[in-house]
Structure formats: C-alpha cells, structure tokens
Amino acid sequence: MHSSFLSHAKGRYFWVALALSAFSIFLYVIDHPTEPPNGGTWLGYSLGTIGALLIVWLAYLGKRKRNFVRGWGTVKGWVSAHVYLGASLLVVATLHTGFQFAWNIHTFAFALMCLVILSGFFGIFVYRTYPTAQNELKKNQTIDDTFTQVEDFEAQLTRLAAEASNGTKMLLNSAIERTVIGGGYLDQLLGRDNSSLVLDGRVVPNSDQDSALEALVERLARSEGDEHKALSQIVRVFNNRKKLIDVIRKDIRMQATIQVWLLFHVPVTFALIAALTAHIFSVFVYY
Amino acid sequence: MIENIYDIAVIGAGPGGLSAAAHAAELGVSHVLFESSPKIANTIQKYQKGKHVMAEPGILPLRSPIEFDAGKREAILGIWEEGIALHETNVRFGAEVSKIEGEKGAFVVGLSNGEEVTAKNLILGIGMQGNPRQLGVAGDQADFVQYQLDDPGEYQGEVIVVVGAGDAAIENALALAPNNKVYIVNRKDEFARAKEGNLNLITAAIDSGEVECFYGTTPERIDPPADEDHKGVFVLNTLKGEASVPVHRIIGRLGAIAPRRLVESFGIEFPNDDPNAIPALSSQYESNVPGIYVIGALGGYPLIKQAMNQGYEVVEYILGNKVKPADNDLIAAKFSSLPLDLDVDEVLELMRQRIPVFEHVNALQFRELMLDSEVHVLRKGHVIFTRNDYDNSFYTIFEGDVAIEVGEDLHIKSGVGNFFGEMSLISGRRRSATVLAGENCIVIETPRRTMNKLISSVEAVKRVLDQTFIIRTIQQKFAPDTPIEDLQDISEKTQINSYSPGEVIFAEGDPGDSFHFIRSGSVTVSNELDGKEVVMSYVPANQAIGEMALLGNTTRGATVKAAVKTETLSLDVESFQMLSDRAPGLKERMQLLAQDRNRQNLALQSSAEEGGDLLSFLMGQGLGEATDVLLIDEGLCVACDFCEEACAATHEGTSRLNRKAGPTFAHIHVPTSCRHCEDPSCMKDCPPDAIQRGGIGGEVYIGDNCIGCGNCEQNCPYDVIQMSYKTEAPDNFWRWMLFGLGDSPGKASSQGGANKSAVKKAVKCDMCIDQSGGPACVRACPTGAAARLSPEDFVDLVSVDR
C-alpha cells in the first residue's frame, strides 16, 4: 500500500527527531556552565559532535539513494529519517551555538546550514503538493499524451486552414511554428513564454497564444460565408490547443521546480560541509 | 502405370524434413522431399535478417547428416542448403501437397498442380505455423503479392497495400509508412484483434494521414496496371462501392491456415478440439495411419535440434532398424539414482504401469514427459513443497508414500501411483498443502508446461485431474474432517464452469440456487446504484462466491462477473445441503464468511462510487489476473525515475518497467511493468521452456536458456516483455558526483555498452528474484509512490487514505 515518506513506518523518525530535539532542549535548560552557553562547554561539544555527524549522514543520502544494488533499508525510509532528523538539526545546532552569533566562519557555517534546511522544507512542500496538483492539471494523462493531443489539434488546424484565406493560413502556420515550449531552466521555472507570431509582416510576442487568438477572433468578426465557417472552427480548435499548451507549461514549471530545488539544496550542502570543516579546524587550532 | 514408387516421401522441408530426406539420401534410399514454398525451412526464412538462432537444448546431441549449431539465420540456412546438396537430396520446391490417399506401401500423394506421386512411407514435418492465408482473389498469384515482410527498409517510394487487421498487418504498415504510401485494408470497422499498443499507433497513423485505411473493405481482384509506373491495380470492395488503387506491392497478413485440417484429411486423428492438441504417435513417431510418420513441431517437438534428430531416427525406424533415440542417455542419467537394474525402456514401462494417471499416455508422449521431468529419491521427512509456495510442478509417486498436510490436523497419506500438486497446477495459485516424503519415497516431478501440454492432448489425463481436483477442493475447503469416500457422490454432482472475461456468472436479483468456488481467474462483485454499475469488490481464485444463497437468501444480492478467463466449481443447493450434513461446522463457517463479506461491503459503501470506478479501472487494465503489480501513486510521484534507474542497475542495464507509459485513474498509475499473471500468457509458447514461476513471491521470470525467439513478447497482452542486449550499467558515483564524468548510476551507458554480437533475449520484471530486500524499484523510490500490490490489496487501495 502507498504511504508517503512523511508517514513512513507510522512516522517513526518524527518521534525520533522529536525526542532528540526535546532531549537537547532539556539538557540545555538544566545545564548551567560557568561561562555563558557556547560551543566550547561539554554540552556545546556534545551537541556540536552530534550536529556534525548528522550533517555528514544527511548528506550521505545523495549516495545512498543511488546504491541500487546494495543498500540497507528502503530509500523512502532514508528520506523519512533525512527529513525529520534534518529538521531536528535546526534545534541541535542552534543550541550548540549558545546563541552566540558574529561575523565569522562559525556563524557562516550555521547560516549555510539554515539555508540548506530551509530549502529542504521547501522541497518537502514541493514533493508533497506538486505531484497531486500536476495530476489534477493533466486530468490523469501523461505529458506525452498531452503533447500528442496538441499535435492532433495542430494537424486539424492545418487541415482546416486549407479552407481558409491565405492570411489566416500564414497566421496559423507562424503561430504553430513559433510556439516555444520549455526553454532554459529560468524560462521553465518562471513559466516564461517566448512564443511569437508573424502578424502583418512583423514578429510580435505571442505569450500564451493570446495575440494569435486575438487576431483570429478579429478575423472571425470580419469574415463571412465559407471563410467564416472555417474560421469559427479554427478558433475553437485553436483555443483548445491553447488550453493544452497552458497545461503543459504549468506542468513543466512544476516539474522544473521539483528538480531545481535540489540544484540549490545539494551545492549549498557541499558549501556547508566545507564551511563546517573550516569551523571545526579553526576551533581546534585557535582555541 | 506407376512409373516410380519412392520408399519415403517427406512433406515439409523444415529441420526435421531436411534431416530425414538427407539421411535417406545418405543411405541411398529412394526418396522425395516436397516443400510448398520456393526455399527450405520456411519458418526460419521468415525470421528477421541476421537473427541469431539458438541450438537448445544444449545437452542433447545432434544426430543428423546435416550440420546445425547456434548461429545467424543466414549461416544456418546456408549450411543446410550445402548439406542437402552434398547428399544429393531429392527436393521439390513449390510442391504443395493437397491430398494423401492409399495405405502403407502405396500412398498416393496429390500435389496442388494435379500431379500424383506414389510412396511407400510418408513423413510429415510440416510444422505448426501453417501456410499463410492467401488473398483468394483473381490475380493474387502476381509476383508483387507477398505474405511476409523481411526488411521494411528494402522498399522506398512505393504504393503498398497491406491487407489484414492483426498485429502483423499493423506492424508492417507502420514500418513501411515513413518511406512509402501505405494503405491498410481492414475487413471490419475497427482493429479489434490488435494489441493495445499497436491499436494506438495505427489509429494515430490513420488520423494523421500517415497510413490510409479502408475500413469494412474486402479485396475484389487484382487487375493489370493501367500505367507504366505501377505494377497492378488492386480493386477493393469498400463500403462506398468499388475502389481501384494502383499499386507497386500488396502484402497479405491474414494469418495462417493451421495445418490441422489438412493433417486430419490424411486420416490422422487428434485426441480433442484443443488448438494445442497434437496427434497421438507411437514411440517410433508413427501416427494412427500405419506408414505415416509425424515429426517436429506438429508432433509436439518445437525445437530445431529435436526435429532434426527425429528426422534421422524416423528413417531408421522405417528401414526397420532399432536405433535408440538421441535422448536415451539423457533419460538414463535421470534414472541413474534409481535402485533398479533395468534399462531405460523398462523403467519407462514400469512407471506407466504403476502410475494410473499416465495409463492413457502413449510411449512417445511419456518419454517426452520424462525428458522434462525429474526423478527424486527422497529420504523420509524431506519437505517436497510447503504450503503457500508458489511453484506449480506436478508430482507422481513411483515408490513409497508421502504425507500431505492440508491443515493443522488433516494429514493424508498417499501411496504408489497417486499424484499430488494438481491444485496449483490447475489454479496457478500457491500450494494449498505441505507435502513430506515418507518411507522409500521416489517421486517424479513434472513441470507445469509439460503437464499442460499433456492435459491438452490426452483427454483421460484431464478427466482424472479434474475429478481429483474437485474432490480434494471440497475436502480442503469445506469438509476437512470428512473422509474422501463420503464426498464421492457430491463431487460427481459438482460442475466445472468456464467463463470468458466479462461474462456474468450470476446477476443481481437472480434466484440463488448454487454456490461457486473460483478455481482459476478472478471475479468482480458489483451492484447497480442509480442505474450505474458500481464494482464493490474483487474476489481472486481459491475463494467461494454466492455463499449467501445457501444460507437462506433466495435472490442474489449482487452481480458477479468474470474479471479474466475464469473457471469455477459450482454446487447446487441440494448438494450443499448434503455436504453440510456430512461436514460438521460448515454452515457456521459459511455464515462467518458471509458476515465478513457484508462487513467489507459496508466499509466500501461510503466510497462506493469512486472506489468502484477505481476497481473497474484496475480490472480494465487486466489486473484481475495479476498476482503482483507495481502501482504508482501519482500524488506522491515526483517523476525522478529512480525506479527505472534502480531496475536497470540491477538488471543488466535495461529497465524492465516504463514509468511514464500506461494509464492513470484517480491518482493510481499503472506503469508498463509485469504483473506476474496467474496464468501467464508469456509462458504458453516458450520453445525452451525458459519462463518459470517460483520463489516465495510467485514471480514469473525468464531463465538464461531463453533463445530470443520473441514469442513471449508477442504473446504478452500488456507489452511488458522486451527483446534486449545485455549492457553494463555504470557504477561510478563519485566520479559522476564530484567531477561530472560519465553517466549517473543506473543510466544506461551512452557509450552503448551493448555487446551487439550477442543475442537479443527476452527480458521482463523478475521481481528482483536475486536481490535481497525486495524489488529494487520500490526500494529506490524516495517518496513512497511506488508500491507492489497483490490483488487482495486492491479493495484496501480504494478505501484507505494515504
């Protein structure tokens, strides 16, 4: 039966993480060191060690999830533990700092860690909400099905255009030819539409196919007879095509978001590990 | 006046026929070989170019004047042609035999051109493929009319009409369409016989105008060309009247005429109407017509090497020589552990005498059966199989006895001549009992495929198995404490019913006069709600349905339909009453079952509409015959494709699942991946018997002895089998992660690690039979979207929240 990484093993790692956080807070509250709380007390060292080990273990998920042949447990279980223990790191590491922040390598490492964790929260949000949204958007179809439908509509339009005037034909051809789907990462993430259209000999933007649709509607209003009949069908089919292209664009945008947040999460993790190494090295060399 | 009487006439120049004729030639026996096509080995000619032909079974020695070893199609055909030339074999190509008259010593063989030839003995080696069905219209003998397509790339810029609506016709039309103007002629108004994948492709191609289709159309005649550009004019009878298409080529793909009708017209008898039935033969391959011998696939030996050996042996037999069959040493090896001092034929005879179920099996069939079977000499207490095991071979007791543990308390002793394991053999489901070896126990284990072949060719075996199945089912399921003898009369009243998919077993409101036990297949239970049929639940094999009727309810509360091809045992009210009188506690148990059913129905009722639609959808995807299926929750899937990458990484570089493909309904996606059918279509026609079912998961997997014939790929209705080369999946994580070098783990190498000189073999999901921790696809899924379910879980799937 399906169960998400959040509810894996009845939320086992949620309770583990909660216990770790609560225990850390408890120790912090009862601990009264001679100096103000910081990373150098016995509790500070302990929490720091736990935190550092956690970071290394959390980062190891990237390797573990590709151990297809060997690998202990399921990746879902690992993700579940990663998510909850990663969240508890926020508590453990913050207590490790003793709330002593400054413009130094130590706080820098802490800030990077927070960035990684916050991007992780974003990832959880995306993973838990986007798939459902995408599925509803595509109405149970695959993206390939949707593309095929768009192609079908385009074939229909080409056939219908044969009965329309030359101007309409050229308008349709250029709108279809100059439709851009996808593009670079930034285009995909922002849902930017670089489609264009040749209208009266000039290239004009055709974002969301609006300009083309507008031009077709204008022509429809001014047409009569057979041309009118053909155009009214063309407008209907073109509008259906536009709606599907909207669906594809939204889907691509969400799919890109699902993929791209890791392109932030992972490199910052590497930066964090570098900063963490510097932090630990400097602590042991200079103190 | 008879000019020339041949000693031996061989019909069919396949491997068996060639070998027989060449051996006759080698011995200087007067002979003739008739082949209806213009070349030798018609079936192998039809293989695609460069196809690697395998020489299974490897352990069997070859005994033929013509050489044969695994290799490319062209090389093998070349060697065979050289072989027949070397021995000066008398082959007549294009000689189609249309009738055989006379008797041993003076058979008259009539050819379709009217010529008659006389021979003393006949050898039939015409295979099972049959001849392609001809167009059957005036002009269809023209040289541009063909019935096969070797290499679509050969034709460019032609106008080609493909006639037919099956998979072969569609595949040919699609393959030719990119470079030619292609028409397809369909007698009906849809492509009902085609696989879903092909159906989608051809519909799309017709919609886009890539292929033009004549629906409801039959060929009328082929006229001479009207211009110089074309080779002829194909006149068609369309819905709108006659249409003329100037063509370069006509390809008929109308299926084949099974050779059975022809063979029967020679006087050879088949045991029953089963399409898989083979004629009964003596141990010397002689049919019921003295003097007519049958070898090769038609005689039940589909592999090339077997057929070639038979060709050699049958000539020896005709000459009166007592050669031992080539498989003699193989069978002797199987018998080596037996504490008997007898030769192979004597042991075989003793086995047939001792084991009544094989009584009606002839010597040749039994020999074939033993070649596939294993003989086990077991010490006392050895576990032969355990309850809930998934294997499904069939066992007979040659010596000693076994203990069958059906339940905690029910232990049955079974002795010499009895059999066990028939329940799983028939239902395809798990073992229903544990069986232990007793004193001096020797059992024969026969694989499922071999038994099924026997069941379809020997009526008596089927009858005995069915009777035993009924009585043992009644005892196990309903009357565990009642002795078998007391159940005899009830079992005789029990009926075996078969239903095709979608057929109604009983309908809501019908009088409840009987109860059914599903012995194979599965059913859906539905109610009519607001004029709409809503599926309430799904009941797999090995369970009872309609039990409420026996507990005083006189009308059916729901409609029960077969989800897939289903067989049930049914018992009328009267017999059930008799049974319940003799089986204490039965009525109470049935009441408990009814109570459970009612509870389940109530739980479903709240979500009946949506849940029912989902169940209908799953059944519509053929999951009624699944035993274990990968379902993806679209609400959790982030399309990372780790499932596919994990599959490729653990399976020689080729993912056996296609995540994107397949339909979705109410957030459940059915990817293209093996569902391990209860009665797998892929297993039905595997020449080397390479597809097996076993292990604790019941997985259906393809063994290393696959010969790459592609039958299973064709037979799978769900398109989950691919033909593929082995490749190496990369495993260089750190290089890839840190330096961006190479492919990520699991991605098939872009360098093309495939060894192209190797053979393309069939690959499919094996449920990670050799991986610890279960299927890699599920283990690698980061979000929990991928799960493997058995049909019993479907009902939960529709009622449980995530």
Q: How would you characterize this protein structure?
A:
The complex is a heterodimer of chains A (287) and B (802). Chain A is mainly alpha-helical. Chain A folds into 2 domains: 8-139 and 261-286, no CATH class; 143-255, no CATH class. Chain A has helices at 12-30, 42-59, 61-64, 75-97, 105-137, 143-161, 166-177, 185-190, 210-222, 225-286; strands spanning 196-199, 202-205. Chain A has a two-stranded antiparallel ribbon with strand order 1-2. In chain A, strand 1 (196-199) and strand 2 form a beta hairpin. In chain A, helix 4 runs antiparallel to helix 5 (105-137), helix 5 (105-137) runs antiparallel to helix 10 and helix 7 runs antiparallel to helix 9. By secondary structure, chain B is an alpha+beta fold. Chain B folds into 5 domains: 5-130 and 258-318, FAD/NAD(P)-binding domain (3-Layer(bba) Sandwich), CATH 3.50.50.60; 145-255, FAD/NAD(P)-binding domain, CATH 3.50.50; 328-480, Jelly Rolls; 494-605, Jelly Rolls, CATH 2.60.120; 619-799, no CATH class. Helices cover 27% and strands 24% of the residues of chain B. In chain B, strand 31 and strand 32 (532-540) form a beta hairpin. The longest helix of chain B has 20 residues, at 459-478. Chain B starts with a strand and ends with a helix.
